[in-house]
Write a structure and sequence with these properties.
single chain, alpha/beta, Pyruvate Kinase, Chain: A, domain 1, five-stranded mixed sheet, 60% helix, 14% strand
Length: 284
């Protein structure tokens, strides 16, 4: 059994760790609320722009934009993988990376990877995947400008024929306790089924082709940006839950060590009493 001094040191160290995890839990909870507000706003925007795109395409079914046409032969596929820059958020990044790896293995064509987040970049480099674009150190409240370079690179490669499909992998925020790794095809763009029975007529300025080009590009950008915000909300939620579990575990360990400390202290006292009694008996 360890000495009482060693046990006291362990208790002190674990209590200090518990204070750190408690502070991290509170910080994550605060950031999570802000991230959730951003996710809700981004979802509304994505849904709105999706309706506009659907109306435009329904109004002009004869126009086939390159973002909407599936190619007959798929030679190269791009995968945008979104993870966090930091750890200590449970299995969030692991689950997303497993999802990305499974998607990559399913492809019969060559795969190129675009990573957002340090964890995705380090993982893809470790497995030797061809990386085409990297974004790291994304702030907790990201702007579209933080990732627009990577999105533009993927779009240009798709338009120029360097990529025939582009997929997106991220963690979808469901609630505080649930984060779901999700994959979606980014290009060709996923469009909703025709549900509106009304007639939508638009006046274009400039020409319809230029308007659709701009709207569809904005739509693709909004999908990636929304995925990033979803992942940020998932990160803070997962970190809050993980740090709460760590704090609770620290309390349990301190409780067990306190019992061990009391037993060791009692054993030391008993041994001292036995030695005193033995010495007194020998002297008598």
């Amino acid at each position: 059994m360890a000495s009482t001094k060693e046990i006291r040191g362990q208790i002190k160290a674990i209590q200090n760790t518990g204070k750190i995890t408690k502070a991290m839990e509170m910080v994550a909870a605060s950031k999570m609320r802000k991230a959730q507000d951003l996710v809700i706003a981004a979802r509304s925007y994505s849904e709105g722009i999706l309706r506009v795109v659907g109306h435009l395409m329904n109004a002009h079914p004869e126009y086939k934009h390159p973002f909407l046409v599936e190619r007959e032969e798929i030679k190269k596929v791009g995968v945008i993988v979104i993870t966090s820059d930091k750890g200590l958020c449970g299995g969030l990044n692991t689950n997303a990376l497993k999802k990305a790896l499974g998607l990559m293995k399913e492809q019969e064509a060559d795969v190129e990877v675009f990573t957002i987040g340090r964890r995705a970049g380090s993982f893809m480099r470790r497995i030797g995947a061809p990386i085409n674009g990297v974004v790291e150190n994304v702030p907790d409240t990201p702007e579209l400008s933080d990732i627009i370079g990577l999105i533009s690179l993927a779009i240009e490669q798709y338009v120029n024929g360097g990529l025939d499909e582009v997929h997106l992998v991220y963690s979808e925020f469901v609630n505080t306790m649930t984060q779901t790794p999700t994959t979606t095809r980014l290009m060709p763009c996923p469009l909703p089924e025709k549900t509106d029975t009304g007639y939508w007529d638009y006046l274009y300025e400039p020409e319809a082709k230029e308007v659709l080009e701009g709207v569809l590009r904005r739509y693709v950008e909004s999908l990636v940006y929304q995925a990033l915000l979803e992942n940020k909300a998932c990160e803070q939620s997962a970190r809050m839950v993980a740090m709460k579990a760590a704090t609770d575990n620290a309390k349990d360990i301190v409780k067990d060590l306190s019992i061990t400390y009391n037993k060791a202290r009692q054993a030391a006292i008993t041994q001292e009493l036995a030695e005193i009694c033995a010495g007194a008996a020998a002297a008598g």
